[in-house]
From TrEMBL:
It is found in: Nucleus. The keyword Protein transport does not apply. One of its GO terms (molecular function) is mRNA binding. This is LSM2-LSM8 complex subunit LSM8. It comes from Dimargaris verticillata. Belongs to the snRNP Sm proteins family. LSm subunits form a heteromer with a doughnut shape. Residues 1-75 form the Sm domain. One of its GO terms (biological process) is mRNA splicing, via spliceosome. The gene is lsm8. Pfam families: LSM.
Length: 97
């Protein structure tokens, strides 16, 4: 059984290789770790403004574009004041040629 199987129907945070941060409910995945997220949103970080939440709804992410998948502690997540957070956006992952 894949380790990601335990995350199905749980709230997860995905960091993509291009530096995007997407949070949603993991609904499914396949053998190459393509994933389907429901009720998701992208969190867009800025050093000058608060975190922008861009609703995405149902979203598919290709497995080769996923850097990290982790469970969200919903209690901690709901207590954060995203409007007050300031952070540099994550850089794109560059692979050597």
């Amino acid at each position: 059984m894949s380790e990601i199987q335990a995350y199905v129907n749980e709230r997860v945070l995905v960091v993509t290789s291009d530096g995007r941060v997407i949070v949603g409910t993991l609904k499914g995945f396949d053998q190459v770790t393509n994933i389907v997220l429901a009720d998701c949103q992208e969190r867009i970080f800025s050093p000058d403004d608060g975190v922008e939440m861009a609703p995405l709804g149902l979203y598919f992410i290709r497995g080769d574009n996923i850097a990290v998948v982790g469970l969200v502690d919903q209690e901690q997540d709901s207590s954060l004041q995203f409007g007050a957070l300031r952070a540099q956006p994550l850089p794109e992952i560059l692979h050597g040629a």
